[in-house]
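Table S2 (text version). Query chain:
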Amino acid sequence: MIDSVTPSISPVGPSSAAAGADLARAAAAAAASPEAASADFGAMLGQLAGNASSLLKTAEATSIAGMRGQASVQQVVDAVMSAEQTLQGAIAIRDKVVSAYLELSRMSI
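Corresponding structure-token output:
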């Protein structure tokens, strides 16, 4: 397994570091004002889902370009690894939401 990957600037799509920085800025902005956080939580989740979807599409396009010889192996590996991280994050969020729903459904009224 690869212990560390040196990020490279890819002309194909955004890097996971940039996506992580965007998520950190969104979380900091939401934490700054509680009223805005409650009003924009749905919008933030929608934006995260859109970003995840575009990142997965970019990774797929990079993989196809790599098969055609139009992208380097490093670009393909970087895109696939960032897509894997995004997918694992989405799965973790989904698991937490399902767990919270199940806990709420077990509460007595």
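Notes on Table S2: Helices lie at 16-32, 34-67, 73-106. The chain has one domain: 16-106.
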